[in-house]
Amino acid sequence: MTGTGEVLLRVEGLTKAYPGVVANSDVSFAVAPGEVHALLGENGAGKSTLVKMIYGLVKPDSGTMTLRGAAYAPAKPGSARQQGVAMVFQHFSLFEALNVAENVALGMQHPPRMRALASRIRQVSQDYGLPLDPDRLVGDLSAGERQRVEIIRCLLQDPKLLIMDEPTSVLTPQEVDILFQTLRQLSAEGTAILYISHKLEEIRALCDTATILRRGKVVATCTPREKSARDLAEMMVGETLTPPARSAKAKGAVALEVSGLSVRSPNPFGTALKNVSFSVRKGEILGIAGVAGNGQDELLLALSGELRTARDTIRINDAGCGDAGPNERRRAGLVAAPEERLGHAAAPDMSLTENALLSGASRKGLVSRGLIDWAATRAFAGQIVDRFDVRTPGIWVAARALSGGNLQKFVVGRELSQAPAIVVVNQPTWGVDASAAAAIRQALIDRAAEGAAVVVISQDLDELLEIADRFAALNGGRLTEPRPTQGLTVDEIGLMMGGAHGMEVAHHVHP
Amino acid sequence: MFILEKRPTPSRFWTAATPVLAVILTMIAGGLMFAILGKDPVEAIRTIFWDPLFDPQFASYSRPQLLVKAGPLILIAIGLSLGFRAGIWNIGAEGQYIMGAIFGAAAGLAFYPSENRLIFPLMVVAGAFGGWVWAMIPAILRTRFRTNEILVSLLLVYVAQSLLASMALGALRSPEGGGFPGSRNLSQWPASANPELIAGTGMHWGVVAAFIAVIASYILLQRHILGFHIRLAGEAPRAARFAGVNPNRLVVLCMGISGALAGLAGLFEVTGPAGQISIDFNSGYGFTAIIVAFLGRLNPIGILLAGLLMALTYIGGELAQFMLGLPSAAIQAFQGMLLFFLLAVDMLGNYRIRLGFGRAA
Fold first, then answer.
1. How many contacts, defined by CB atoms under 8 Å, are there between A and B?
2. Is B350 found in the same domain as B206?
3. Are residues A213 and A277 in the same domain?
4. Which residues of B touch A401 (CB under 8 A)?
5. A271 close contact with B: CB closer than 8 A
6. Distance CA A102, CA A251 (A)
7. Is residue B353 part of a domain?
8. Which of A147, B189, B323, B342 could disulfide-pair with B22, CB 3.0 to 4.6 Å?
């Protein structure tokens, strides 16, 4: 695997500063041909900026890069691709209304004829165990399949270095295994892989070397297999981590009951909910897993009141409210935190004060006879910032100026500070650094301990296993029967989530 | 090479400074244009911006004209700005303005020649109602059938103009007008007149209404939850729905307010400065108000200043045509430049410009 002292990419002293933050400071490391090299770090540690410089999206302030011994300074992604560097982004850039081959062709400078391209896609997908039909519409593909489109788009360029940004966040455990086999095969063929993640077990399973970043600086380089996940986490965070504390407590009466909930998605490529039923008791946390795009967004909208249904499909404290809007539900005690922080849970260009008003108006009594009590709203925003340790210069700052983790703390804090009886959160720690994620999980657990019923929709299985009392999975808009979390195996969970989406045989031909 | 860099938080300074910068750039570019046309640019700019207010010969006539022209522009622009803030594009204020005038005038003329003091208030209500009804057509078509309110409201302007012509020639034509088109003179009938309230200022009830609208809209946007929801809906529609805003209700509300204010402006115009319903009493205020709304950055105070500035360019433009023989097209181009530069420098609020050098690919 790792070459004998041979170096494919060498990065020396890369520095990039943005107004107010130094994203990367004097970062150096080297990647050998065929090496799987992890970039490990919390959100905001500078991983994204670093790979964006390697991929030609961002120009470094100082420092040099060499690729195969020659100076390497890509001015744009196109020239990085020409020199054999490809990247799979965390967020896909695909057109849902076009088919796979058309999407691949759009990313090429000189696309071949459609038929030739389709057969090349079939060939590459077979060679690497990533089955994909070039004629299918991207809108109909699962998140895992969409990722395959992105990977194959890269592989068609025959890259020497493949950068993957948090590739497993959208995959089931079975799909992760298949992806890892593909990556190992690529590595065996001499393609180096730069693998960005904060999932420690994955890095220990896959990577040969890990470069650990903290606040823009390289703090350690190690062989992840020789370290425990805890060691890696502590190197990454720079402090000792304490897992969330739970106290076993008797659960109360049913607070939220959903029965036979079926709604169509407002989004043409969304997933309709089909006959979803569950109930949550006071003091209980229900974890809902599932790969992205299986109805999570729709479930949150239906629970928050943004999508309405028949009155009795959703009952809060035994009162029907399926036809009530968001504010009526808030008054009834249900608060929600949507997945998309900017644009849904918060207005990007509005200040934190204004964003505190956004969902806090009714329960916190911030409005009387239509007039906003700005003093009370500022006090509420300040209280959220203090209690949930939101790092911001002030409450007058626009929401978009906060880092993902800080804004998420603000959003979750805003909802939990309203003394809710029922809390629904979608992806509460997505893209959030480890210490912020731990704080958010602890806050959810604390709120449940105070007697709230909590529904956590998440793609992070470790998170759900850590905090949920009961566990269910969304798959194609259907919800499995909730089961107690204790005693569930990863295989069982994977099957609840829909297995490998018909990919079980993929790697049998190419071991 | 210039590089645009997004600011983490919008700059308050530049948000306030861009309109001033746009006016300065317009003066420079407009001066160049006037120079190419063979006029002295300094004199042309002075004739447009200075003489209407301070020239001893013209100021006594043009100073009151400032409020007469700015009043309807501000009143309409305030209404439009609420919708524009929420992402609801009422482009048909001109039509609502005409319909307000027709409804208001018709309601008053029905009682001619009574001298009842309630006639003028009744006309005001009818004028607002006329504008509101005309705006409800695109609003309801949008909420029911998802039509585009830009197109519907714009096309209804032409319907309103045809109705205006028909009214001036038919139903509302003055029986004592000797067969000429146009209604009875409303400004000379005491029961319906909208006179100059303070002599020599141009202040009439429409200007008073415009000032009230500025204050009310300022309070609405700063202090009222509805104003917050309007801003939220424009900036982040999904967040607005999460906050419990009903988008359809907002469309009806914003279209209704802007229609009613445009209708009011029409009524005050037809009972005051214009004096009667005639085929062309409307002087495009409904369209110019769109420019005023954006020039004022959709901010009530900004609109107040922009309305006054726009009125000044109209009055000064006429003066320049008259005194310097500038073609009217040049004046229109000059006004167009103002909007162009405003939009062009608009991004300074959200971006900063850095000098930088890109590397060769």
1. 84
2. no
3. no
4. 8-9
5. no
6. 53
7. yes
8. B342
Q: What is the pLDDT of residues A53-78, one digit of tens each?
A: 999 988 899 999 999 889 999 988 88
Query: Residue B358: closest CA among chain A residues belongs to which residue?
Result: A75
Q: Could you identify the residue written with the tokens 């009370």?
A: A376
B166 and B209 both lie in a single domain: yes
| Same structural domain, A222 and A262 | no
- Whether the CB of A59 is below 8 Å from some CB of chain B: the reply is yes
Q: Kindly state whether residues A214 and A162 are assigned to the same domain.
A: yes
Is the overall model pTM greater than 0.90, yes or no?
Answer: no
Residue B48 counted as domain residue: no
Query: How many domains does the structure of chain B reveal?
Result: 2
What's the Cα-to-Cα distance from A211 to each of A77, A184, A194, A226, B97, rounded to whole Å? 23, 19, 10, 14, 67
Q: For residue B55, is it within any domain?
A: no
Q: How far is CA B270 from CA A29, A446, B96, B123, B159, in A?
A: 77, 66, 13, 11, 19
Whether A194 and A297 share a structural domain: no
Is A400 in Cβ contact with B226 (below 8 Å)?
Answer: no
Distance to chain A for B226, nearest Cα, Å:
7
Q: B354 at the A interface (CB within 8 A)?
A: no
All residues of chain B having their beta carbon less than 8 Å from the beta carbon of residue A75 are 358-361
The structure tokens listed for A28 are 């150096």
| A387 at interface of B, judged by CB pairs closer than 8 A | no
Q: How far is CA A352 from CA A201, A437, B85, B118, in A?
A: 36, 20, 20, 49
Give the ipTM. 0.84
- A499 dihedral zone (left: phi>0; alpha: psi -120 to 50; beta): left
Residue A509 lies in a domain: no
A312-333 residues labelled b (16+ CB within 10 A) or e (exposed): ebbbbbeeebbebbbbebbebb
Q: Are residues B242 and B352 in the same domain?
A: no
Which of A395, A409, A290 has the alpha carbon at shortest distance from A351? A395
> Does residue A3 register a pLDDT over 60?
no
* Cβ separation B9–A397 shorter than 8 A: yes
Range of the domain at B81: 60-325
Q: Choose the final residue of a domain: A204, A237, A270.
A: A237
Look up the CATH number of the domain holding residue A131. 3.40.50.300
Residues whose CB falls within 8 Å of the CB of residue B187, separated by 6 or more in sequence, listed in order = B193, B194, B195, B271, B272, B273, B274, B275, B276
CATH number, domain at B171?
1.10.3470
N-to-C CA span, chain A: 16
Give chain A's domain count. Answer: 2
* Residue B253: strand, helix, or coil: helix
- The reported pLDDT for the residue numbered B293 is 93
Collapsing DSSP to helix, strand or coil, B144 comes out as: helix
Residues B131 and B208 in one domain: yes
Q: What is the mean pLDDT of the segment spanning A459-481?
A: 88
Reported as a single tens digit per residue, the pLDDT across A473-498 is 998 889 999 998 887 877 788 788 77
Instruction: State which residues form the domain around A376.
Output: 254-496
Q: How many residues does chain A have?
A: 511
pLDDT mean across residues, chain B? 90
- To the nearest whole angstrom, how far is the Cα of A18 from the nearest Cα of chain B? 10
